[in-house]
Each structure stands twice: as structure tokens, then as C-alpha cells.
């Protein structure tokens, strides 16, 4: 067992998984926070209250969350092809990964913002704060532990997505496990890939929990 | 300094209109501590939020200083708000910031440079008595300390006006008193005008000179604290007076006293807050050869002197008693009510 596995190849696969996860996570966080902010600010009784706009953003988020990830990848093939001139490899998987997880994170962000004490926002308004100040100096810092634990949860879901994307040629540990384990029946490869993915997940969880706890002064 | 005319706020919910604040007219002078008292739902919370337009008025005008608040555009309103401090029942501090940074927040909003900010924050920390706690987070502070941070934060931009929204309602009685003392202190030191809303009579009694009683969105009584509470006209005001004077069943008590003390003249003395009434009892017994027996009474202190009622028995020669009563009536503002003459 494990003797015939090429360590070089599996390390490359692990690197690809990390690359996809981290780059997609950065994209997810940026888009997720923007969408989450829009969802929160346009909701009833908030600064930019706008029923229509809120409904549109909310529907987009819900639709993307409802599409099964594996189908989302297929749906995005033309778009990916247009962007990168290919539909294979870790980079080509990024649009699907980001679009698949950003709506999910957006909802977590929205919930995080809703937990921010309305009284604190009112206090900031009473001091003459602009909306921009309220966003950057009240909403974001006050919800930071929730935003970070949301990143942890989303990041772990993303690792799962990268494995799925691997099946259609994105590279990474999922791809590797599928190719050797499923097509060549080398189950030790599957096992090793699983262990590596678990290690990545645990490290993610650990770092996320640590930062979230550090930030929480409540 | 503050002139409010015909202020009105109508909320619509489920197609029903609710007059939270109903045609309210009020003048508040510069440098005074003005109290608005009412039970929850009376509209006082909405009222105080209308003053800095955290709630938009439906109609009416609010003039603070020279400025007509109701007609300001968003930008000017933000500027105006920087000059109106506000403190809250639940403090509303940012938990993610330290004491120091919470107090610096309004200064950041006003665009004060970092160095000056730090200097000002230190001044404020000393002013509210939080030295040594600069780097603590709100979660590490007691309720009273949190409100001190709230007060320091509200004063950061040197406002002319401070709005207090039930600022002591979440605090225990002792802490309430220390916060009230602090408010009086800054009122005197900085010449700050303070408007506070509360449901606690104690707060009004302790620090306010003038008061307005609110019920169902309207002001039902207003004036000097002593006048309003020594002579309450509306049932709601009477209820608030009972809060501090205690609920006495006067008729029953009087009957009991009449039955017990058969001798002398029984009178009720009404104190309505005047320095001239100081040491009244001792003055009277020194001047006239009579005995005074205190039977029942409660005197409480307000910003303009003692206020309350005392039930006493006067014993001695009838002409002496008569002279003593005349003395009280002519030399002091204490009202004398004869309950029973010498039998």
C-alpha cells in the first residue's frame, strides 16, 4: 500500500486544491460581502431600504444557491471557455467555484450584519456618521467574528467543491483520486487523497476558529 | 435655546395611524436640565429621536440655537448632529473598540486629526472618571462605567446639547445616582443644555429644574419641577409623584392620627422648596413657648429645595400656637393647613 504512489504528483494535486480553494475563497469573500451588504442595506428599515432591489438581489442569490454545483460547472462552460480559452485546469474551475459559493457566503454575511446591534448603528447616526462610515467602521468590525467563521464554513464547503470540480478535469486531489482510484482501482490513492483533504480541512477550521475567537471581544 | 413648535410624528402600521408625538410645543432654555417624564408608550422616546432626526418628523419645527433642524439637508444634518450629543439606555458602544477608541469614534467622524483626537480622548476619560480603563473593552466594564464611556463619547465634539434617552433606566439605584451626579457636574462645568427622558420620578427630582409630563404623545403638564409636582393636576402626574412620596392612604392615616392625638392643634405643613423654609421647626420652637410633635411626614429634596408634607401636633397656650402659625404663614412659603383646632 502507498508504495506505487508518486509523491510528486500527489503534492502537485494538493497544491492545486489549495490554489483553487484559496483563490476562489478570496473571490467569494469579496463578492459575498458586497452581495451581503446589498441584501442587508436594502432590507426593510435599513439605510437603503428598497423592496424591489432587495428582491432582485435576493432572487439572484437564491437561484445560484439552488443550482447543484456540478450542474453549475457545466452551465458555466461557455463562459469559462470565453475567459480562459479552456475549460480544464484549476484556473478554469475558479468562476464556477466563486459563483457557487459567493451566494452562500452572502447569506452568512447578511446574517452577520443583522446581528449587529441596531442601537450601535443608531448611535453612529446620532454622531453624524455617513453611510460609508457606518459600513466600514461599524457594520464590518462589529460583525467580524461572524464574517470570519462564515469564511471558515465557506472555505470548507469550497474544498468539497474543488473535489467535485476535479471530476471534470479541474485538477487537484479530487481529480487525482477520481482518476487513479476510480478508473484504475488504486484505492490507496483514494485513501491518501482523503487524508490530505481532511488535513487541509482541519487546518482551515483551526485557523478560522482561532482568528474568530481572537477577534471576539464581546 | 431650543424651540419646538407643533411637532408631530405619525406612524402608520397595518393602515392604522398612531400619533406617537402629537402637536408638541416646548421651549427649553440654554444651560438647563430639562426632563420629560412619561410611561412607556407615551411617545417620549420618539420625541427625543425627533430632535436629532433619528426619526423624521411628520410636521412641525425644531429650532436648536439658530438652526432650524427640520429643514436641513442630509449633509447639514450630519454636521448638526455632530454638535448634539446623545446617550442611550443600553449605552450602544461598539464592543469591537476599546474605551479609548469608542470615545474617539465621533472625533473620527468629525475628521479630527489623530494627535488632537488622542489629547481630547484623554481629557474626556479624566472628565468622566475612567482613568486607567482606557484600553478595556466594553464587555469588561460595569453598566455604570459603560454609561460613562457613552457620556464621554457624546461630549467628544463639544456639543451644546446633550440628549439622554433613558440613560439610567438600565442601572441600579446607586449607579443611577453617580451617573446623575456626573450629568449635573458636566451641566455646570460645560454649561451644556441637557434634555432627558425617563420614567423614573427620582431622576427628575434629583437633577431637573423643569419638567414636562407626557401622555399619549402630548405634554399634559409642564413647568418647574416643584410647581408641577407639588400641585399635580393630571392623574398621570399624581402617579409619578407617588413614586417618590410613597403611596399613603391619607384619609385613613388622618383618621388614625385624629383618634390618637386628642390634645393641641393638628396641622399639616406643606413645604414647596424654598431656602427660607430651612430649619423651620427649630425656629418656631425657639421663638414661641410651644411644643411641636412630628406625627408623620416626608420631605424630599429637589433642585430647588425641599418639598413634601409634614403632619405635626402643636401643644401649648392657644394664643402662642396662633402666633406661631401666623409666623410660619408670614415669614416662610410653607403652607399651613389646620386639620383640627384645639379642642
Description:
Chain B: One of its GO terms (biological process) is amino acid transport. Chain B: InterPro entries: AAA+_ATPase, ABC_transporter-like_ATP-bd, ABC_transporter-like_CS, ACT-like_dom_sf, MetN_ABC, MetN_ABC_transporter-like, NIL_domain, P-loop_NTPase. Chain B: It holds the Pfam family ABC_tran. Chain B: Residues 2-241 form the ABC transporter domain. The complex is a heterodimer of chains A (218) and B (343). Chain A is mainly α. Helices cover 81% and strands 0% of the residues of chain A. Chain A has helices at 7-41, 51-66, 69-75, 77-84, 90-114, 118-126, 131-142, 144-167, 172-183, 187-215. In chain A, helix 2 packs across helix 5. Chain A starts with 6 loop residues before the first helix and ends with a helix. Chain B has 343 residues and is α/β, with parallel strands linked by helices. Chain B folds into two domains: 2-244, 3-Layer(aba) Sandwich (Rossmann fold); 250-342, Alpha-Beta Plaits. Helices cover 38% and strands 30% of the residues of chain B. Chain B has twelve helices and 14 strands. In chain B, helix 3 crosses helix 4 and helix 3 runs parallel beside helix 5. Chain B is elongated. The mean pLDDT of chain B is 89. Chains A and B meet through helix 6 and helix 7 of A and helix 2, strand 6 and helix 3 of B.
The chain-level mean pLDDT of chain B equals 89
What's the CATH first level of the largest domain in chain B?
Answer: Alpha Beta
Q: Kindly report the CATH topology of the largest domain in chain B.
A: Rossmann fold
User: What structural category do the secondary elements of chain A indicate?
Assistant: mainly alpha
CATH superfamily of the domain at 20-170 in chain A: MetI-like
How much helix, percentage-wise, in residues of chain B?
Answer: 25-40%
Number of strands of chain B: 14
Shape of chain B: elongated
User: β content of chain B, as a range?
Assistant: 25-35%
> What is the CATH domain class of the domain at 20-170 in chain A?
Mainly Alpha
Spans of at least 5 consecutive residues with low confidence of chain A: none
CATH hierarchy: architecture of the largest domain in chain B: 3-Layer(aba) Sandwich
Strand arrangement in the largest pleated sheet of chain B: 6-7-8-3-9-10
Count of the separate structural domains of chain B? 2
Give the N-terminus to C-terminus distance of chain B in angstroms: 57 Å
- What is the CATH third-level topology name of the domain at 20-170 in chain A? MetI-like fold
Amino acid at each position: 500500500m502507498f508504495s506505487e504512489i508518486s509523491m510528486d504528483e500527489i503534492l502537485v494535486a494538493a497544491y492545486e486544491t489549495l490554489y483553487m480553494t484559496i483563490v476562489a475563497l478570496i473571490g467569494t469573500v469579496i463578492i459575498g460581502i458586497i452581495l451581503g451588504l446589498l441584501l442587508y442595506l436594502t432590507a426593510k428599515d435599513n439605510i437603503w431600504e428598497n423592496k424591489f432591489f432587495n428582491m432582485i438581489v435576493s432572487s439572484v442569490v437564491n437561484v445560484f444557491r439552488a443550482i447543484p454545483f456540478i450542474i453549475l460547472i457545466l452551465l458555466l462552460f461557455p463562459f469559462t471557455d470565453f475567459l480562459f480559452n479552456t475549460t480544464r485546469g484549476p484556473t478554469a474551475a475558479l468562476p464556477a467555484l466563486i459563483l457557487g459559493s459567493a451566494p452562500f457566503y452572502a447569506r452568512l454575511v447578511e446574517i452577520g450584519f443583522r446581528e449587529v446591534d441596531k442601537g450601535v448603528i443608531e448611535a453612529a447616526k446620532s454622531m453624524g456618521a455617513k453611510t460609508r462610515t457606518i459600513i466600514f467602521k461599524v457594520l464590518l468590525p462589529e460583525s467580524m467574528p461572524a464574517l470570519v467563521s462564515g469564511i471558515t464554513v465557506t472555505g470548507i464547503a469550497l474544498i468539497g467543491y474543488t473535489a467535485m470540480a476535479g471530476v471534470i478535469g479541474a485538477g487537484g486531489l479530487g481529480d487525482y483520486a477520481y482518476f487513479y482510484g476510480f478508473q484504475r482501482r488504486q484505492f490507496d490513492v483514494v485513501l491518501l487523497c482523503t487524508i490530505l483533504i481532511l488535513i487541509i480541512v482541519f487546518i482551515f477550521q483551526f485557523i478560522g476558529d482561532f482568528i474568530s475567537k481572537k477577534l471576539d471581544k464581546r | 435655546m431650543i424651540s419646538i413648535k407643533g411637532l408631530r410624528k405619525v406612524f402608520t402600521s397595518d393602515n392604522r395611524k398612531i400619533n406617537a408625538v402629537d402637536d408638541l410645543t416646548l421651549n427649553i432654555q440654554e444651560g438647563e436640565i430639562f426632563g420629560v417624564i412619561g410611561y412607556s408608550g407615551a411617545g417620549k422616546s420618539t420625541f427625543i429621536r425627533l430632535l436629532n432626526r433619528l426619526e423624521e418628523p411628520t410636521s412641525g419645527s425644531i429650532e436648536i440655537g439658530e438652526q432650524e433642524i427640520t429643514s436641513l439637508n442630509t449633509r447639514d444634518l450630519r454636521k448638526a448632529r455632530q454638535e448634539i450629543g446623545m446617550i442611550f439606555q443600553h449605552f450602544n458602544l461598539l464592543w469591537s473598540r476599546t474605551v479609548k477608541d469608542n470615545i474617539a469614534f465621533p472625533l473620527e467622524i468629525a475628521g479630527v486629526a489623530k494627535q488632537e483626537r488622542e489629547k481630547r480622548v484623554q481629557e474626556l476619560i479624566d472628565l468622566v472618571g475612567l482613568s486607567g480603563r482606557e484600553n478595556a473593552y466594553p464587555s469588561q466594564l460595569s453598566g455604570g462605567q459603560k454609561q460613562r464611556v457613552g457620556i464621554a463619547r457624546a461630549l467628544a465634539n463639544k456639543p451644546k446639547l446633550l440628549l439622554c434617552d433613558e440613560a439610567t433606566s438600565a442601572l441600579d439605584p446607586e449607579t443611577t445616582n453617580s451617573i446623575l451626579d456626573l450629568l449635573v457636574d458636566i451641566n455646570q462645568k460645560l454649561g451644556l443644555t441637557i434634555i432627558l427622558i425617563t420614567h423614573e420620578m427620582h431622576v427628575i427630582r434629583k437633577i431637573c429644574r423643569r419638567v414636562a409630563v407626557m401622555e399619549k404623545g402630548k405634554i399634559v403638564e409642564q413647568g418647574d419641577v416643584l410647581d408641577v409636582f407639588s400641585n399635580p393636576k393630571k392623574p398621570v402626574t399624581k402617579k409619578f409623584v407617588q413614586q417618590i412620596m410613597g403611596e399613603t392612604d391619607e384619609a385613613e392615616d388622618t383618621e388614625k392620627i385624629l383618634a390618637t392625638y386628642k390634645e393641641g392643634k393638628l396641622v399639616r405643613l406643606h413645604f414647596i422648596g424654598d431656602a427660607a423654609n430651612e430649619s423651620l421647626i427649630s425656629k418656631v420652637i425657639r421663638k414661641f413657648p410651644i411644643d411641636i410633635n412630628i406625627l408623620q411626614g416626608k420631605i424630599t429634596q429637589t433642585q430647588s429645595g425641599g418639598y413634601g408634607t409634614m403632619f405635626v401636633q402643636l401643644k401649648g397656650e392657644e394664643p402662642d400656637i396662633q402666633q406661631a402659625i401666623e409666623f410660619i404663614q408670614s415669614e416662610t412659603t410653607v403652607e399651613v393647613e389646620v386639620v383640627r383646632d384645639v379642642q
